[in-house]
Amino acid sequence: MPRYGAAMSINTDSAHNALDTPVRVAALYRFTRFDDPAALRVPLLDACGANGIKGTLLLAAEGINGTIAGTAQGIDATLAHIRTLPGCAELEVKFSAAREMPFHRMKVRLKREIVTMGQPGIDPNRSVGTYVEPQDWNALISAQDVITIDTRNDYEVAVGTFHGAVDPKTASFRDFPSWFRAERERLLGEGKEPRVAMFCTGGIRCEKSTAFLKQEGVEEVFHLKGGILKYLETVPEDESLWEGECFVFDQRVTVGHGLRLGSYGLCHACRRPVSDEDRTDARYEEGVSCPACHDERTDEQRASYRERHRQEMLAARRGEAHVGAQMPEDEDEA
């Protein structure tokens, strides 16, 4: 099976010049108020279908989030439609390019939240942390009165993080509020609270997590504008405080400085990144299990994954796409 590294990253300005890569991938999100998100679903699905777009988009009362792929013209036309939605004129979009279509169908789903935190009343449009440009991030997180918190999931942090950042060791973004409330006194102490700097992959979780801290009464909260990806794209490696690689929710799996393709693959049973060392572990079986998930699955589940992987290999030898080979979805990050 080909590794997901068949894609390469490109920035917004060069997206139209990627003529050697026929598929353009757009990861997007926007926090805005949709009074009736259900009414937006069918026209959005029709626009994607008319332009040959595949992927997943989430709609909720708080906005839109997702990743789509297609031709450059199809993506442009679809983004033009999305930007006509209420409050979406300034839609946040990150582009990459792929040699092959990374998705097998188009889905537009209605959700309660576009990134699930499970906390009522959180509104990044009303109250959110202060944005910090990537070139100013090092100075902020190096200050003595700043505590830096990684808002991502445990398997993401294990791949890489900023030097000195606090790892909440959460399995899901839904766990972040309870973690912070339990650890607040230890983290922030008594008396004058430190400033809090927070970061995530592309920005969407930072928007919610900083809004949550503001609602919890933390006054000075900052977040990395454009997320880790923008930092890795713009900050020279010899000046960087980033250590390791960055897990991404697309066919690249991980990226490094300059958004160069990383060294990790993906476990198709649990959607966690897999290192070269993991592949030498007795618990690793391609398409079936990895050291992280082997003991989480039953023999029956592994047998099912094994058959799915066999079907994928047969399809690959025939030169066909197999639905089971698609990149797994995760609504935590655009």
Automatic annotation (TrEMBL):
<comment type="similarity">
    <text>Belongs to the TrhO family.</text>
</comment>
<dbReference type="InterPro" id="IPR020936">
    <property type="entry name" value="TrhO"/>
</dbReference>
<dbReference type="InterPro" id="IPR040503">
    <property type="entry name" value="TRHO_N"/>
</dbReference>
<dbReference type="InterPro" id="IPR036280">
    <property type="entry name" value="Multihaem_cyt_sf"/>
</dbReference>
<keyword id="KW-0560">Oxidoreductase</keyword>
<dbReference type="InterPro" id="IPR001763">
    <property type="entry name" value="Rhodanese-like_dom"/>
</dbReference>
<dbReference type="GO" id="GO:0016705">
    <property type="term" value="F:oxidoreductase activity, acting on paired donors, with incorporation or reduction of molecular oxygen"/>
</dbReference>
<protein>
    <recommendedName>
        <fullName>tRNA uridine(34) hydroxylase</fullName>
        <ecNumber>1.14.-.-</ecNumber>
    </recommendedName>
</protein>
<feature type="domain" description="Rhodanese">
    <location>
        <begin position="142"/>
        <end position="240"/>
    </location>
</feature>
<dbReference type="Pfam" id="PF00581">
    <property type="entry name" value="Rhodanese"/>
</dbReference>
<dbReference type="GO" id="GO:0006400">
    <property type="term" value="P:tRNA modification"/>
</dbReference>
<comment type="function">
    <text>Catalyzes oxygen-dependent 5-hydroxyuridine (ho5U) modification at position 34 in tRNAs.</text>
</comment>
<dbReference type="Pfam" id="PF17773">
    <property type="entry name" value="UPF0176_N"/>
</dbReference>
<dbReference type="InterPro" id="IPR036873">
    <property type="entry name" value="Rhodanese-like_dom_sf"/>
</dbReference>
<keyword id="KW-0819">tRNA processing</keyword>
